[in-house]
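Recap quiz, item 2
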Amino acid sequence: MSNPKQARSSYYESSARARIAGLLEPDSFHEWLPAAERVTSPHLATLEQPAAFDDGVIIGRGRIAGKNIFIAAQEGGFMGGAVGEVHGAKLAGVLERAVRDHPAAVLLLLETGGVRLQEANAGLIAVSEVMRAILAARAAGVTVIVAIGGQYGCFGGMGIAARCASAIIMSEEGRLGLSGPEVIETARGVEEYDSRDRALVWRTVGGKHRYLLGECDVIVPDSIAAFRQAVTACIDNGDDWSLAALEREHQMLAERVQRFGACKDGRDIWRELGWADPDAIAMLDNDEFVAAAHGHRAKNI
Amino acid sequence: MTIENLKYRFDNGTTTRGVTAIVGVLGSGNLEVLVEPAALGGACEIEVKTAANGFGAIWHAVMKDFFARHRVGDIRVSVNDAGATPAIVSLRLDQAIETYLAQGRTKK
């Protein structure tokens, strides 16, 4: 089923198209609004900026582990995966189509800095439409799975959109947050947050921290094969779209503020979660980390 | 910033079956190349949109070399460029044409 050529390839290093090719069964991908249709950004053209043929996002349907799914993949290499009007409409469109067609899941491979500043308001509206479309898909019984493991992370409004999904899969290299490190440093100063301190960045927004905080449901090593396996498991697990699940989530979030509100650093949170040596966490490989994290996450359900 | 639009046409290429292919990414120092089949009487038409102005002569040389290497006709090549070097452009063009032809061989 899996493509042997892709078995060992890095998710982090791959382009959006390579990720789709590696995750889906060979030749099962059918793209909607492909590059040749040239549905490009009208705003970038007005600003005389180069516009990608697919506006930096690839959408379509395909098969994974024998199941028919819809998929969208943001290309971080084009404007940092930022969401413009067309880009956002493609993301929302694939989710809205899922409400009608009920695929086994919608898989969103997110890699984005958030709203595309050149398209300001149109981009902001697009992101809010994506959030609404994710919730509409879940309400219609479609599992929405987010994967984060690219160079540019998942930030801005799309960070919120990611948390609207049924499940989030991350690698250690993945980053998830609202304001990105550079944004915080620019707004609040380097004393507040040094965006060049990579260890600080990863223990604030990195995959391991998000897993321990309970925002990321599955953490995987950086390979397309590992992501594929996790996606398959998440499809099988389905989605808990119940009032009880929502209340559990709210309770977890309320407890989190209580427990960690005074913490100044990711390390303080990890200590509070019962890790005797927080500095050792960064050095653990994925399996060791997942085993050691048992009972030491903010989410234990 | 303005975008420079360059167009080239090379005649007497060989008509070869292929399937629309896109390679590369429109990111800094990189480019994306789209190759599509087109009934052009054996010609190869190339359109380049580039953020780096004033390199028309170099683009022409790179495209002439590209056509000399492959001599594929009845195709339309569209390039979005964000300041890639000539070597990168040549590699991407080769990758695009190879993908186009390989897909043509495997598709029934």
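The beta strands of chain A are 30-32, 57-64, 67-74, 105-109, 143-148, 167-171, 218-220.
The mean pLDDT of chain A is 94.
End of item.
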